[in-house]
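Internal tracking record. Fields below are filled automatically when a chain is submitted to the structure queue. Please do not edit lines marked as system-generated. If the sequence contains nonstandard residues, flag them in the REMARKS field before resubmitting.
Queue: standard
Priority: normal
Entity type: single polypeptide chain
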Amino acid sequence: MFRALTVASAALLLLAACQQQPAAAPEKAAASTAATPAVAGPGDMAPAFTLVDAEGVQRSLADFRGKTVVLEWSNEGCPFVKKHYSGAMQALQREATADGVVWLTLISSAPGAQGHVEGEEARAWKAKHKAAFTHLLLDPTGEVGKRYDAKTTPDMRIIDPEGRLIYVGGIDDRPTNKVEDLEGATNFVRAALADVKAGRPVQTAFAQPYGCSIKYPETVAS
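SYSTEM-GENERATED OUTPUT FOLLOWS
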């Protein structure tokens, strides 16, 4: 009788141990998920990057630590970009850079895709569009665009002097490609930069981006 109870107890313990093993799997999965870099949003540290500019010079985000930095994703063939480059984007660039802001315009279009530029065409981009950005950065692999989860052109980011994202998303509240809709629109980038200049928290830290989809390599291939 005692032997039978002992065997039964051992069997129950073995069964219990077998049932507990799968419970460890979710913990491993959670650790793996936690290790995956999160999409950078307002309040997060801006992901580091180094890109070559239109002049062939390497530019790193770290080069501009201590300054407010604007990132602008662009594609000159996009009707939404054309709307803003009818003069509004250039005016905002001039305002920002006059206040000491570093303005980095990024092109993440893949080779062969709409908006992609290189060589002389890239060097002529600023004069062609009468732009006033600080540097035009080329991201043909799309690596930096995807690191920031940039989805459209235009898509905007503002980074504070400590390297933290303080604005993410669309440039204004009029998601159209009509030039006439610029009048009366609330430009979230201008408003955020005004907040920074006044030393107050950014009142609108996120707005839904709109525009043409960024022509990443896998998008072009599909």
